[in-house]
User: Fold these one by one.
Assistant:
Number 1:
Amino acid sequence: MEGTNTPDNPPVLERWAPKFFTIWIGQAFSLIGSALVQFALVWWLTQKTGSATILATATLVALLPQIVIGPFAGALVDRWNRRLVMILSDSSIAIVTGVLIFLFLTGRVQVWHVYVIMFLRSLGGAFHSPAMTSSTSLMVPNKHLARVAGMNQTLQGVVSIFAPPLGALLLGLLPTGQVLAVDIVTAAMAVIPLLFLSVPQPPRLVARENGTEQKTSYWQDLKGGFVYVVRWPGLSGMMLLAMALNFLLSPSSALMPLLVRNEFHGGPPQLALVESIFGVGVILGGLALSTWGGFKRRIITSLTGIIGIGIGTILTGLAPANLFWLLLGAFFILGFTQVLANGPLSAIFQSAISPDMQGRVFSLINAGATAMMPLSLLIAGPVSDWLGVRVWFVFGGAVCILMTIAALFIPAIMNIEQNRQMASEPGEIAK
């Protein structure tokens, strides 16, 4: 056996890799298909309406399920068979995409149809994401979680670089409806392995199904997730830090087109180059993390990465208009250090959070971080119009660094993997 063998962290078989990576590859193809659909729908809305308000509304519609429904979905993920949750989520997303394909092929599609489909696809993701993330910790030995997180970050970088041009190529060759059909094929590639491979379930779920442990109600489980987070000071501290950082840094992608155009006098080629360099940084950072694994104390790797993000953000705001290469360097740093920040933190959560609680906790973390995005955009827009777009980058990066340095002196955060026992056991919370 490998990994830690405890009631909260069941043993992982030595031959874990073939099963896990078969499932992981299928999920990777599904992610690519989803990125193509997202690109195609955004481009269709752009051509159809040319309205920034329409695009902003589409973004909000896609975020709402993650923010509002996510915490409630997480409690259900912890009560249900996670393999079935992933199968049903991927299948449901493919079905609603099929409906949209029909509307495109018959010429009946309207903007509100796209809104509804984007909402339903995001709803499926609100169930699928915590199910896959929490299943990973039951399939991968603890010592390899940081490397797997690095691979996930690398995959995100690959998708960010290649999905847009691939989507543009397909849209140039095929009607939008046929491009969307790619998502159904990739969803099938994700579902088929899950039909034949088992996925370990949390020990308490197995015990309840066997009748050896008393069942709890949905509302008890939902409350248990909130109490678990609150009673674990390191976890709640990292959640608050992540929410604050998302508030400070989320507007960066929305403000980048203005920065490139107004400050560097660039156009679409320059903007595309900046985004590609960011993707290169993510890929190389993911490869480095998956090979190296990070420092022995994962929290050190994560906080180092966050400081690097702050440095990259400040450089973005300070880069002179005649030094475009410095902006490219800043975005390479942002991509590379983002992996160092997110990968180890994901591994910490997967290894330290009780498997029975991971669906709820991951959903709460995602909902809190995602909720900061629309709020920060509402504030960053007027502030940037008033003081200039560079100000938000410099301010956000500086506060990011200061908050992370402060976190280095907070024992609850620095000892997050050791102070988990301060959170009550799920069964005790639910009483």
Number 2:
Amino acid sequence: MTYKLKSQIDLHGNVVAVAVIRTTDGACIPFDPDNTDYQAFLKYQAEGGKVYGADEEVPDGQANQ
């Protein structure tokens, strides 16, 4: 599984993360503690999984894992 943060610019010009993209299927996962996909992301991250930043490119071959 590979994840990438999705960001946008807020009203003050700051870049803020607004969701997580699961690169295997392009699912947009909101930061919602009740969302089971978000819980899976948090577990992945806690176990040391790589999370790509919004401005990082996911290397070829990683997006489908």
Number 3:
Amino acid sequence: MGQKKNPHAQALGHLGGTARAENLPQSEITKIASKGGKARAKNLSAAKRRQIAKKAVAARERKRAQQRKGKH
């Protein structure tokens, strides 16, 4: 990524994506998001994927601990 992206083009793309999403059912939005996640994961190294997964596990554990703390 040697070149800096045009912020105006990014903003227009975001508007177009938002408008498109308003007209799609949730199941289609989920499929599109899944494709993006898979493409992102494909470009990550194994070490980076492992790091992200560990961070997700820690976040889930914190959430569970807060829920248990709130019940008692």
Number 4:
Amino acid sequence: MNANVGDRLVISGHHVGEHEREAQILEVRGAAGAPPYLVRWMDDGHVSLLHPGPDARVQHVGRTRTTKP
């Protein structure tokens, strides 16, 4: 897993009907974008240090990729 400050971390729901949780990455504490991440949860504003599990994915926000022909 690789993330940058400002990216979103999305945690999948574990049970039927349970919604996904989203957090904004405030700080990357691992080397080269690796966890742990200091995050702010979007639903309640709580800030926590997180080591994401296999149910997490990163949404890279505000980045565009350019390719050379």
